[in-house]
Write a structure and sequence with these properties.
Elements (H helix, E strand, L loop, with lengths): L22 H11 L8 H7 L14 H5 L5 H14 L4 E8 L5 E7 L21 E2 L9 H16 L4 H9 L2 E3 L5 H6 L30 H12 L4 E6 L2 E6 L17 H14 L13 E3 H4 L6 H8 L3 E8 L9 H21 L2 E7 L9 E4 L2 E6 L6 E4 L5 E8 L6 E7 L4 E8 L13 E5 L10 E3 L7 H18 L2 H8 L2 H4 L8
Parallel strand pairs: 3-8, 5-8, 6-7, 9-15
Antiparallel strand pairs: 1-2, 2-4, 6-8, 9-12, 10-11, 10-13, 13-14, 15-16, 16-17
Helix pairs in contact: 1-5, 2-12, 5-6, 5-12, 6-12, 9-12
The chain binds zinc ion.
The site of zinc ion has 4 residues, from loops.
């Protein structure tokens, strides 16, 4: 039996609601920033920049004064088109709908195979980078959409030069929506053209009367369609007005302000802490311990995108407050970009470097199965992709987990893994039909993959055999391989082997 490497669908939904200046300015900023080595300490870099810090009170400026230095909606569209023209080898652009006033909601996808669904070896991103940077939900918070253009251009300029940029482009499909609310940006208001707060417009688990999907605003419906069309793993929205990484739940059952943990509280704390500690000063503030907060513990909201994505999109989403001033002067943008650059890169890369990933296959003919994958003790299930059978599960590193796969009509299987720091684990499940031959108690083999070293370091786990020596484990694997060689018909094996081109270099173990 073959072990198939998984592919990672990662979606970066960067909803940034504001924009600052045009692409040319972004290029100038990037050219200046490129003088600093990638991966250098952002704090140290930040001190080199001349940041003009303003008080948190909002200045009494006219709309024209506020907009100075920021891209208009048409400037933003032009900047995106310039980007995909200049970087056509790693990008494409598509629209997910229109705003109330008919402005297209443009998305940039960045990948070495943009627009292609893939099932490539370990953590080669398949369709989507399921990490969402969600910003630009609120019209009067424009920093995020500027940063997304800077991020896109930085990735393009550093592809095959910087390891992190190369990792993201080759392993992830990064989808960025710079503005979810272009009408609100033009009006310099929080809500959309109907003055509806889009981050209160999603169906909510605690407000059943709010669950009519057709009653949503066009921008909200576009996001909901998008999340259902793509198989995003994670997401982040970019906001302004505070400096903190916020994680689910945003609302509480009691409707009171209290810490209300979701099933994946540990994983979300890990993701939020990764962002805040990679940031110039997010983790150093006095208002939020370590620069992170549970949403309901800060202030509960209902109808937010973050909770909806986690519940209905299978997507782990953070709400990132990236500037204390909602609409800062444009001359602060270079510093804000530099303060957030490593955080944004690390958050995307974390999808490749941690968690458990794999494929679900039938032992009968090798076809992929849309299995449910759950972690023992965590009340949350992810569904493997229908087309490629791959699944991606974000988990906090440094712990042991039991991964379970279930498909109707097949015998359920489970295996235990140790998720070490900065090292993802690949677990492929080969499912036997109910009533068919019982192979072993637990057959899945997982392969640890440190994507910093191009996956050449592998470890093989067999559930229940932790502590065995390598020789003993090798003998077990050899016996299992021999048994399967006898049990499986030549025809079946040939079918499975035909899928090898999808899987890349041989690094799985057949059982
Ligand atoms: Zn906001």
């Amino acid at each position: 039996m073959e072990f198939f490497s998984s592919s990672l669908y990662v979606l970066l939904l960067l909803f940034a609601v504001t924009s600052i200046r045009g692409y040319q300015l972004g290029r100038t900023v990037l050219a200046n920033l490129m003088r600093f080595p990638v991966g250098a300490c952002p704090r140290r870099l930040g001190r080199r920049l001349s940041l003009q810090i303003r008080p948190r009170w909002l200045p009494d400026l006219s709309i024209a004064e506020m907009a100075r230095g920021y891209m208009t909606n048409s400037d933003l569209e032009d900047a995106m088109k310039q980007f995909i023209t200049r970087c056509s080898h790693i990008s494409r652009m598509y629209s997910i709908g229109k705003s109330v006033n008919g402005v297209p909601l443009w998305v940039m996808e960045i990948s070495d195979k943009p627009g292609h669904r893939e099932a490539e070896p370990a953590f080669k991103v398949s369709t989507l980078l399921d990490l969402q940077f969600i910003g630009n939900v609120h019209g009067d918070e424009p920093v995020g959409r500027e940063l997304l253009l800077l991020l896109a251009n930085w990735l393009c300029d550093n592809y095959r030069k910087d390891p992190l940029a190369t990792l993201i482009i080759t392993k992830v499909h990064l989808h960025m929506l710079p503005t979810m609310n272009p009408d609100g940006f033009s009006l310099r208001v929080r809500g959309n053209a109907n003055y509806i707060d889009l981050n209160r417009d999603f169906p909510d688990q605690f407000l059943p009367m709010n669950n009519d999907e057709e009653a949503r605003q066009p921008e909200t419906k576009a996001i909901m369609r998008w999340l259902k069309e793509y198989h995003f793993t994670a997401s982040a929205s970019l906001h302004g007005g505070a400096l903190v990484a916020n994680y689910p739940w945003d609302g509480s059952q009691s409707k009171r302000r209290e810490y209300y943990a979701c099933p994946d509280d540990k994983a979300f704390q890990y993701m939020a802490s990764l962002y805040s500690h990679s940031h110039y000063n997010m983790s150093l503030g006095k208002e939020f311990h370590e620069g992170i907060t549970n949403g309901a513990a800060w202030y509960p909201i209902y109808g937010g995108m973050q909770d909806w994505n986690y519940i209905h999109g299978g997507c782990f989403e953070l709400t990132l407050e990236i500037s204390e001033v909602k609409w800062p002067d444009a001359n602060e943008l270079p510093a804000l970009w530099e303060y957030n650059r490593i955080s944004m890169l690390n958050l995307v890369a974390s999808l490749v470097k941690t968690g458990v990933h794999g494929r679900i296959l039938s032992s009968e003919d090798g076809r992929t199965l849309p299995a449910s994958v759950a972690i023992n003790g965590i009340n949350y299930t992810v569904i493997a992709d229908q087309a490629f059978g791959d699944y991606h599960r974000i988990l906090a590193p440094g712990e042991k987990y039991e991964v379970m796969a279930t498909v109707p009509g097949y015998q359920s299987k489970a295996t235990r893994i140790l998720l070490e720091d900065d090292e993802a684990v690949n677990v492929d499940f080969v499912m036997d039909p109910e009533g068919g031959p019982q192979t072993t108690k637990q057959l899945p083999v997982s392969i640890n993959c440190n994507c910093n070293c191009d996956c050449d370091k592998t470890k093989i786990y067999l559930a229940g055999l932790e502590g065995w020596t390598h020789v003993e484990m090798s003998l077990v694997v050899a016996v299992i391989l021999a048994c399967f060689g006898i049990l499986f018909k030549r025809k079946t094996l040939l079918k499975l082997l035909k899928q090898r081109p999808l899987l890349g270099p041989r690094r799985s173990v057949g059982v």
